[in-house]
Design goal:
This protein is mostly beta strands and 533 residues long. It has helices at residues 2-24, 158-169, 188-193, 195-200, 386-389, 507-511, 525-529; strands at residues 26-32, 34-35, 49-57, 64-72, 78-84, 91-98, 105-106, 110-112, 118-123, 137-139, 142-145, 213-216, 228-229, 236-238, 241-248, 251-257, 263-268, 270-271, 285-289, 292-301, 308-316, 321-324, 339-342, 347-351, 364-369, 379-382, 399-409, 412-421, 440-448, 454-456, 472-480, 483-491, 516-524.
């Protein structure tokens, strides 16, 4: 009995000692945070709510090195966030607030000492300058973080307002993201909380994210003369060899490279006759699984009300002689602009769901196949909502997703979405001359955990933007070891440049790929990870 009692006392002492030791190995940050929607006129929150604070070095703000979650007391507006002392050096850090329905907010750089445990206090409520970019709103005597970023995409915009409206219309109740004021009811009072933020499209303010850097121009005589790299086929990297499909003079060609910079011509691409598609449309997207290459494309038939888009597929055992599948063209009529992705257990095809006469607004759809022969119906996975599309203050104003190249890195799905900005009057009537960003294309980065539900990154800003005199940038991703190589094809012409009238360039020359150049960018996968929303 005595042994049992002694054993239990000893065990308890060990546990208490361990807890005390763990506690002594932490730096506690007491943060005072007011949340706009929850703050009442007595300068208290209506409820206590949890908040996560991330740490990042001021020299590398894009890398979050630790996090801690705590409850913000509704009376004191404070919470205690504990961070480990291990693997940290003294220096300037950002405190990054993440709350379930508020705009992520960064502090000013603060000096933290990780050599000894202790308590550090930071008050976000007493000065607007306590937040990076003064990104706070004054209410009831306190500076508050902005409420209303329901979908956590870094912007309080029409998408968030619509989410609140939809829940209010059916009188939802409970602890929901759309309940901004914490009264457990979604109604007009929640909408009124975000009126100002919706009006100005309030955005997150962050120090910066690393953009991919252009590090090379591919070297080959015809690579940068009258060339149009296929906008739907990423460079393939397999067994130490790079393969690039591109089009010149309306011929599809294959080049290879050992270093990704210096390229050598390998083969012209052939597709056996079986209702062969138009030469300019063949092999729009090609991927490789093992020792088999899979390709897909669309071609047109008819005109006016009888216009149709036809989907076709082909396979190859060497990457340049392709055999069309017997079902070509398929019986269903999709839109165009498709890309293929190999998800190991099935093939994914991201494609425009409908032709322009059915739906003039471009969207990204998804269909799947287990055998590359039988395809599911097309489900829309990305479309820009009216609340953003028709809002001049939105970054998606009169913009449409053109197509998207997808790759995976572990559980993370990334989409290189090419975004077209149509004309200022909301049409694509080729009303020359153009001004501003009319008929331009740039590349945005999308993120997903399943390939179906996609989120914007970087507040809907471009990942590879138009720049200098360049008006179109199509960027294509290729994983190479611990880096992401990005091959872009860029042009000073605008998207409608295949018209005979635009800038004096003939349509035939443009279609052959004239006036385009190919560039190579690079970013580490570690730096890419910080783009996660």
């Amino acid at each position: 009995m005595f042994k049992f009692f002694f054993y239990n006392i000893l065990t308890l002492l060990i546990i208490l000692t361990s807890l005390d030791s763990a506690k002594s190995q932490t730096l506690s940050v007491t943060a005072k945070i007011a949340i706009e929607g929850l703050l009442t006129n007595n300068s208290r929150h209506i409820i206590s709510d949890s908040v996560t604070i991330y740490l990042s070095k001021s020299a590398e703000p894009e890398i979050k090195i630790d996090s801690s979650k705590a409850l913000i007391n509704y009376i004191s507006l404070s919470g205690i966030f504990n961070f480990s002392l291990q693997n940290k050096t003294n220096g300037n850090y950002y405190l990054i607030i993440k709350h379930r329905n508020s705009l992520m907010t960064w502090s000013q750089p603060v000096y933290l000492n990780f050599e000894i445990s202790g308590i550090f206090n930071y008050d976000f409520t007493n000065k607007i300058t306590q937040a990076y970019g003064s990104n706070l709103i004054f209410k009831y005597g306190r500076y508050c973080i902005f409420s209303g970023d329901i979908n956590q995409d870094g912007t309080i915009d029409g998408d968030d307002g619509t989410a609140i409206e939809n829940d209010a219309l059916v009188s939802l109740s409970g602890y929901l993201k759309t309940d901004l004021n914490g009264d457990n009811f979604i109604d007009g009072s929640d909408l009124s909380t975000v009126d100002y933020s919706l009006m100005i499209n309030k955005e997150i303010k962050i120090p910066y994210l690393k953009l991919p850097l252009r590090d090379a121009i591919p070297v080959k005589a015809d690579i940068n003369r009258d060339v149009l790299i296929l906008p739907y086929t990423s460079v393939i990297y397999k067994n130490g060899v790079f393969s690039m499909y591109y089009r010149t003079n309306n011929l599809v060609k294959l080049d290879t490279s050992i270093d990704g910079k210096t390229w050598k011509f390998k083969k012209n691409i052939s597709v056996n006759v079986n209702g062969t598609p138009n030469a300019g449309d063949s092999l729009q997207s090609t991927i490789r699984r093992g020792n088999t290459w899979y390709s897909g494309w669309t071609n047109h038939s008819g005109s006016g009300s009888s216009f149709r888009e036809w989907f076709n597929t082909a396979t190859s055992t060497n990457g340049y002689n392709f055999t069309q599948n017997p079902g070509n063209p398929y019986s269903f009529n999709p839109g165009e602009d498709q890309t293929l992705f190999d998800n190991a257990d099935s093939f994914y095809c991201y494609i425009r769901p409908n032709i322009p006469s059915i739906d003039p607004r471009r969207k990204i759809g998804l269909m799947k196949s287990a055998n590359f022969l039988n395809w599911t119906r097309i489900d829309t996975v990305i479309e820009f909502p009216d609340s953003a599309y028709f809002n001049p203050a939105s970054r998606l104003y009169f913009k449409q997703p053109y197509n998207m190249n997808v790759f995976r890195n572990g559980a993370d799905w990334w989409g290189f979405m090419h975004v077209l900005r149509i004309e200022d009057d909301g049409t694509e009537n080729w009303n020359f001359p153009y001004s501003g960003i009319e008929e331009t294309v740039e590349t945005h980065l999308m993120y997903s955990t399943n390939g179906v539900d996609w989120s914007y990154t970087n507040n809907k800003k471009a990942f590879v933007p138009i720049h200098d005199s360049v008006n179109q940038v199509y960027a294509l991703p290729t994983i190479v070891n611990d880096s992401l190589y990005i091959y872009s094809f860029e042009s000073t012409l605008r998207h409608a440049g295949y018209s005979l009238e635009d800038q004096g360039q003939a349509a035939f020359d443009y279609a052959k790929g004239k006036y385009w150049k190919i560039f190579k960018y690079k970013i580490s996968l570690e730096d890419l990870n910080v783009w996660k929303p």
